[in-house]
Hints:
mainly alpha; single chain
Amino acid sequence: MYTPHTYPVALVMMLTSMLCWGSWANMQKIDKAWRFELFYWDYMWGILACALLFGLTMGRTNPAAPVSFFHNLGSASTRSLVEAFAGGMIFNLGNLLLVAAISVAGMAVAFPLGAGLALVIGAVLDYAISPKGNPVLLFGGILLVSAAIAANAMAYRGLSKGAKAEAKGIILSLLCGVVIGLFYPFVAKALTGENHLGPYTVYFVFALGALASNFPLNYAFMRWPVSGSRLSVKDYFQGGLAVHVWGVLGGLIWGTGTVCSFVAAYTPMVGPATSFSLGEGNTMISAVWGVFVWREFHGAGIGVRRLLALMFALFVLGLVSISLAPVFG
């Protein structure tokens, strides 16, 4: 299987992860009439297709090797398989809360609050499992990102005209952050220990866990939606080809970023805490999309614009600090 042998290559993979994780949700916003609950079914098929695509190519560069995709999957311990599967289930709940938050509050709010909080929780837990990288640079960067989250929340409060919509968007985003922050430590554990999974097999089992949990969880969101009327399975099959393609593409984009993150986390010089933390810079990427492309803060006053500028500056400084942590570890 392919793994990077130098830090610059691993850094490129982590930056790819950040870009993909911060961009996939644009596919959800292309057709505003297609509800996120329906979009999410196709998104899950894209995630699973991505797992197979990378597993059968980059995960089998030498099919006869013990670490190749099928050999590694067959020899993995039950513990690693359960941890990867559980990680996928936990992620799926958090990500459903994220897309619900996007539908209520927009990308410029849901990502910085949700993914930013996930960064803080996940990085601390990942570092406890595998303490790699300079802790001052790593946690200093996390502190800067946390300040950026606060600036974004203040900007949203300054923009929002309806307290009820504001509260719902923030609550969904924060719940999403707590849950997503808990999934990566399961992946980190599955990548270590005797008969552990490799990065490509861990993503495949992870995707199966996410798909299995999606049937009860997404169906619950369809029947008890955060906004709008109830949906049925019949509604999904009434969508045209285009809306289904956008959902699958969203899953492929997210899956590509996740494979890059898991491979970088598996690299000894990086570790899961740094890989997850840098990938969660997706908060800045998504905020760029939300502010400059989708115009979610259109008409904001000078005070709100200053807070947004401060948010971007803090994010950049935080991400630079996190990316340097393995270099000076």
